[in-house]
Specification:
Blueprint (H helix, E strand, L loop, with lengths): L2 H4 L17 H20 L3 E2 L5 E3 L19 E3 L5 E4 L4 H10 L8 E10 L11 E10 L5 H16 L7 E7 H10 L8 H11 L2 H13 L2 E3 L5 E3 L5 H11 L4 H12 L5 H17 L7 E3 L13 E12 L5 E12 L5 H4 L5 E7 H10 L12 E3 L6 H16 L4 E3 L7 H11 L3 E4 L2 H6 L1 E6 H8 L5 H7 L3 E5 L3 H21 L1
Parallel strand pairs: 1-5, 7-10, 14-15, 14-16
Antiparallel strand pairs: 2-4, 3-4, 5-6, 6-13, 7-11, 8-9, 11-12, 12-13, 16-17, 17-18
EC number: 6.1.1.21
GO molecular function: ATP binding; histidine-tRNA ligase activity
Enzyme class: ligase
Length: 506
């Protein structure tokens, strides 16, 4: 066996499919965004709670194991006691388990928020990852529709706290009970009609994409697209179709509420649902949230199979350019509603609950499009360079570094090969360091340090073409006593911050 055969194989570094590494810029932007969301939630009286990434698989509800390895939609494994555990699919099912398990200790109504990663064992695609962050707020134990109305107000306040101005967002509200009433009114109320109801829901969900005429075809015989592919319709007759299109086509709810009430009159829950929508609209209006911010919109159908009452969706209404170069509305960045059945699964008794989930990554993309993220600059650290490697000199450099940190200034002492000073300045340049601090033997003897304003130096170096004049000018460099080091660094950083502010204002 030769040496080449004995050489061990080098491990190949590879990122798992559907997952992504996050950069410092992304993490800072996420922290900036979630801090603003958290401030709104706290102001509304919500408190944080944290649940683990893993739950027993049966606690996740509809994603139950249906084979010896339950990987349909979730990442699962068996514990040492042969029980299946799964990475959480969302943040709501773990909350339901937490409430049920601690029901006798928690104070109802239980108002809480959570931010964290969730995991979907699904096929990844462009912009679709198998790990992503959600930020939820929930109220458990409040049966009244005022809890749903307040969720909508909180979402509107959150959008504005993030810098999304009025007119660029709307919180759209519908009610599962009203849609159930419409289905019952057109003869699709029984269990035997469940499949047809689902086809109607799917057709309504295409309203934004195909318009009323396209949805009419999908509610009826079916629709052929431009490529010739045919989608079978829900098979409704003309009268049924007209009633569904009236419902989802309501633009001014105040004008149409009475007519909608007549349509669902006599159904099991339709009238109650209309009353709930009326109440949400009235509460929102009383609190100063008009239909430009919170709008009753019967075309909202996403997730209606999951919810038991009001449903709401935060939609951004400005245009963006998609990957095909087309102008499209940005769309939904979060949704929620009333889910009175979820905690009840564990309790055997009714436990009302309502909540809202924000898709953090999607909302972050929207904020970047609007130029609303990265405004809070994260300044790279001031670099204390190393000219001498003896213990006494290193101690002085470390003392300078700590003095800056103690005043709240990001600072680091160079940790690489200090003997090549040019490499230290290259490092500072690549890091974007605002200032380099230099003290050689001559400066140490005089008790002074040199400060290089690297930002100003970079700017001026572009204006001075002649190397001799550059050296002669000693641009953006100052010498101060050791005692004045921190004060001078603060002065330079303040001047740099003012330059950035002016550049943004231009």
């Amino acid at each position: 066996m030769n040496d080449k055969q004995k050489k061990p194989q080098k491990l190949r570094a590879r990122l798992p499919r559907g997952f992504v590494d996050r950069s410092a810029a992304d993490i800072h932007a996420t922290n900036e965004m979630t801090a603003k969301i958290r401030e709104v939630y706290e102001r509304y009286g919500f408190d944080p709670v944290e649940t683990p990434l893993f739950e027993y698989t049966d606690a996740l509800g509809k994603f139950l194991p249906d084979s010896d390895r339950p990987n349909e939609g979730v990442f699962s494994l068996t514990d040492d006691d042969d029980q299946w555990m799964s990475l959480r699919y969302d943040l709501t099912a773990p909350l339901a388990r937490h409430v049920a398990e601690n029901f006798n200790e928690i104070q109802l109504p239980f108002r809480t928020y959570r931010a964290g990663y969730v995991f979907r064992n699904e096929k990844p695609g462009p912009g679709r990852f198998r790990q992503f962050m959600q930020f939820d707020a929930d109220t458990v134990g409040s049966p009244g529709v005022q809890a749903d109305a307040e969720m909508c107000m909180m979402m509107a306040d959150t959008m504005e706290a993030l810098g999304i101005k009025r007119g660029d967002y709307v919180i759209r509200v519908n009610n599962r009970k009203v849609l159930d009433g419409v289905m019952e009114a057109i003869g699709l109320g029984g269990d035997d009609k469940a499949g047809q109801r689902l086809n109607v829901l799917r057709a309504i969900d295409k309203l934004d994409k195909f318009g009323p005429e396209g949805v009419k075809l999908l509610l009826g015989p079916g629709r052929k697209d431009e490529s010739g592919d045919f989608t079978k319709g829900a098979g409704l007759n003309e009268e049924q179709i007209d009633k569904v299109l009236f419902f989802v086509g309501i633009k001014d709810y105040a004008e149409s509420a009475a007519q909608l009430g007549e349509l669902v009159a006599g159904t099991a829950n339709g009238g109650e649902g209309v009353n709930e929508l009326n109440t949400i609209g009235a509460l929102a209006t009383s609190a100063g949230y008009g239909p430009d911010r919170i709008k009753i919109d019967p075309s909202v159908v996403r997730g209606l199979e999951y919810y038991t009452g009001p449903v709401f969706e935060a939609e951004l209404t400005f245009d963006v350019t998609n990957e095909k170069g087309e102008k499209v509305v940005f769309g939904s960045v979060g949704g929620g509603g009333r889910y009175d059945g979820l905690v009840s699964r564990f309790m055997g008794q009714p436990v009302p609950a309502t909540g809202f989930s924000i898709g953090v990554s999607r909302l972050m993309t929207a904020l970047k499009n609007l130029g609303k993220l990265g405004q809070d600059d994260v300044i790279a650290p001031v670099l204390v360079t190393v000219m001498d490697g003896d213990v006494e000199s290193m101690g002085r450099y470390q003392r300078f570094t700590q003095a800056l940190r103690n005043e709240g200034i990001r600072a680091e002492m160079y940790q690489g090969n200090w003997k090549k000073f040019g490499n230290q300045l290259k490092y500072a340049d690549r890091r974007g360091c605002p200032i380099a601090i230099i003290q050689g033997g001559d400066e140490r003897a005089q008790g002074v340090v040199q400060l290089k304003d690297l930002i100003e130096g970079k700017r001026l170096s572009g204006e001075i073409e002649d190397n001799a004049s550059w050296r002669e000018a000693r641009v953006a460099q100052d010498t101060v006593s050791e005692a004045d080091l921190v004060a001078k660094v603060k002065e330079i950083l303040a001047a740099q911050a003012e330059d950035r502010r002016r550049a943004k204002d231009v």
